Amino acid sequence: DVWQWNLQIKDKGLYLTILRKSEKKALVYLCRPQRLENDLHKPGVQKFLRACGYQGEHWEEALKELKERLHMCEKFPHEIGLFLGYPLGDVKGFIKHRGQNCKCTGCWKVYCDEREARRQFCRFENAKEAEKTFCKYKKCREIYSRLWENGRSVLQLTVAA
Length: 161
Prior knowledge:
Layout: H1 2-9, E1 15-21, E2 26-31, H2 33-40, H3 45-51, H4 59-72, H5 80-83, H6 88-96, E3 104-105, E4 109-110, H7 114-122, H8 127-149, H9 154-157
Antiparallel strand pairs: 1-2, 3-4
Helix pairs in contact: 7-8
């Protein structure tokens, strides 16, 4: 039960919700509310979300609106990248170029400042270090997926900031 999980992970500064579910699977979103709030108030983000039809100003409202959009259509609304910490310029670039012609691909497709995007998300300076970190993220994702499939609970997989 999501409510129970949230009681257990609140002390770790986390919030969990199900963005969309079907008969056989669910899209689970786990965030640090304070970080999401900060991301959603970076320069230009609120204006962009308003242009996309969002009305709320705070993370709870924006997340509720994202969930509604995910329920209304099969495809992901591209602004979901902002909820994942992607830079606004890259989200806009993805939309403008329809996912094509990016400068590089790592955790997301980069359309603006490749060096800054890597440094912002991964906290490193050079491409070699970036590739190593992207590989670590991939391995971490694989390990967590395997642990989940083998019965680990969300609480067991959650770490504090």
